[in-house]
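Troubleshooting entry. Yesterday's outputs looked truncated, so today I'm pasting the complete records for two proteins to confirm everything comes through intact. If either block looks cut off, that's the bug. Protein one:
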Amino acid sequence: MELQGLIPFRLHTSNLQMAETPKIRFGFIGCAGIARRVSRAVALAPNAVLHAVGSRSIDKARAFAAANGFPAAAKVYGSYEAVLDDPEVDAVYLPLPTSLHVRWAVLAASKKKHVLLEKPVALNVAEFDEIIAACESNGVQLMDGTMWMHHPRTSKMKEFLSDVNRFGQLRSIHSNFTFRASADFLENDIRVKPDLDALGALGDEGWYCLRAILWAANYELPKTVIASRNPECNQVGVILACGATLYWEDGKAATFYCSFLSNTSTDITALGTKGTLHVHDFVLPYEEKEASFYAATELDVDEAVTKWVIQPRKHIIETDIPQEALMVNELARLVADIKFKKAKPEKKWPTISRKTQLVVDAVKASIDRGFEPVQIQE
């Protein structure tokens, strides 16, 4: 499919699959900062509704509901368990610290609640396998909260990467996600606490980078991972900045870098035998309703080497609703199919999550083993 440079492709709300069945009712387990964004996403998704929120403090839950567009009829609870015990809740969103994921996701699945789980999905793949097992045994859908995967730009970029005539064969990928955290963040945020989010920047930002690499490689796992030397850690050993190189048996290679200590950047560069892909805002588009990327095939310069005669083309993708609402829309569609059409849960999303966790684990293992190569086995 030919991509048109500078001609916007627009995804209209009317293009989404609009369910004729009742909207899927979401319950929130916790009131973390990211939950504000997801509550707005549920409100914007055409097939979902904010139904309940629970916190360890009823006052905090009430304040969150009032500040984040929950309808007057929404339930407000002073515990996480109460949300899971609400028989009207179809799906739950868990923005809890990573160390709590396995406990609450497994319990949610046992209560027959479908699960939207923040990333990283677990502290290690063994924990995530417990979550997968609980979801599978209870017939509930599992999806992680990697929002950019659901933007229409992502599928348009994949079309280019899959075009052997324009992009060729994938040879190399680089991804980075960095931001310069405040002093308060570096002292108090849960992402720097070993008992809450022990993976630090690797689990938070590195998750996006590694997902981007796997996405570009059609989710083929690398065979070997070698962490970059001298990662930066805080006084209690939580990673603040790190990177790694990934190798495939066919010669492909990838690198990534993530950091709480560098200026903000979110980039993917994919190099093929015939083409290149560049995107500079893959985690969060510069504009909510418009996103772009650059694609190039067989670039060249003039004979005097003074300018490029074939340049990358900018492709603009527009959407009526943001990527996080598209994520909620997709989960709600899958849940509705399970609830009303007796469909089976979609295995694509937990499979992708598990592969991402496997690579996160390998990077962490390489760091812990003195930057030795680590082999990945499914």
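Protein two, checking that the full record survives here as well:
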Amino acid sequence: MIGKWMGLAAGLVLVGNGAFAADLEERMAPPEATIDLAAHSPWQIRVRGLGIITNDSGAVNGIAGSDLSYSDTVIPELDISYFFTDNIAAELILGTTYAHVDAAGSIAGLGRVGKAWLLPPTLTLQYHFTDFGAFKPYVGAGVNYTFFYNQSGSGDFSKLDIENKVGAALQVGFDYMLDDHWGMNFDVKKIFLEPKWKVDLNGTPLTGKVKLNPWLVGAGVTYRF
């Protein structure tokens, strides 16, 4: 009987030692591999239809009550984003448009001043919220540099020249991802843009400020590589 009890005790010791060894091995094992973010491409592109809504304001120096107005346009636009982390990204938007410049206020009778094409590349640094599943809102702020080209006067106006200008940009928007790669996007930007300008009216030089300050309202398709 004593031998049986000793055999049973030895068996329990062996089982306990085996369980302890297994537990120790589990504790000493390297942690399970986490998701490798580097395996996911940091690049993303969007193609949008973009509405450019300008602020109808401006002035001709020395003429009281003078004002300016500008045409609004809809254009295609491409943006390229790079994600430094899941939350932080930089976005560059590319597109070009034109604006008719019209005399307004006390000089409204002078009619159309001219037309200028704009290339306004805008770079923003964004924060993306990642706690809402497929719905991925973001906010951003950055800088815009607008090039004016192919400028021309109209009627009695000639030598229209709107200076290239740096401006600040604010942004809010969201992506709604349909799968790992494709999604829909809605985006709104405010550009603070007030360049100086000059033009000749029947040979008389005029100068002033063009207060464009446009809203850029876009909707389109997102693709994450």
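Both blocks look complete. Sanity check on protein two: Helices lie at 2-28.
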